[in-house]
Amino acid sequence: MTTTDDSGPAAPTPAPVPDASPAAVPPERVYPPEEPRVAAATLWLVFGGFLLVVVIVAFAVGAVRHWVALHTGVIHGGPDQYYNFWSGFGSDLGEATLISAVAIGVYTGVRKVNCHTKGCWRIGRHTLEGTPYILCRHHHPHVPSRGASHEHILEQHIRYKQAQAADRAR
């Protein structure tokens, strides 16, 4: 259907856009599927509450307090009160700091090279043409995820050679 006015030629009327809301799409086709997720704040609150309960129990119950002090080396010390702590349990704090720093560095490095699909921890090695994304073989649409057969590899090579020949012919 076209409309005309006195100012010039007929202009086409835009076609109606179909409704793409989730209510218009059948429930089995909605992507990503909606899953009930526990918020990160809730998890931190549960963890913090558990830690608070452990600290209260450690300070309130004498037997637990004595067990913690004995096994961390705070009591029955040498020249001073905290000698056993810094010679035993406390000396591991430096190692824990070093291990934490290395773990954070590895995590940062992995996040830089992993697949751009949200939540995927696989290493991304395949660029998706026309986009800035790097994907793993599982999420890339043109990389077989079960492993490539010899015939598939040869087919891809022949396609590449034909595309190169077509580019040179131009």
Write a brief structural summary.
46% of the residues lie in helices and 5% in strands.
Total helices: the number is 5
Roughly what percent helix? 40-55%
What would you report as the Rg, rounded to the nearest angstrom? 32 Å
Separation of termini? Answer: 41 Å
SSE pattern, N- to C-terminal: EEHHHHEEH
Low-confidence stretches: none
Principal-axis shape: elongated
Taking the sheet with the most strands, its summary is: 2 strands, antiparallel
Summed over residues and divided by their number, the pLDDT gives a mean of 77
Name the beta content range. under 5%
Structural class: mainly alpha
Number of strands: 4
**Widest sheet, order of strands:** 1-2
Structure description:
The chain has a two-stranded antiparallel sheet. A two-stranded antiparallel sheet has the order 3-4. Helices cover 46% and strands 5% of the residues. It has 170 residues and is mainly alpha-helical. Strand 1 and strand 2 (11-12) form a beta hairpin. It is built from 5 helices and 4 strands.
For the structure shown, list the relevant keywords.
single chain, 170 residues, mainly alpha, two-stranded antiparallel sheet, two-stranded antiparallel ribbon, 5 helices, elongated
Give the SSE layout.
Layout: E1 2-3, E2 11-12, H1 40-60, H2 62-72, H3 83-87, H4 92-113, E3 126-127, E4 134-135, H5 150-169
Antiparallel strand pairs: 1-2, 3-4
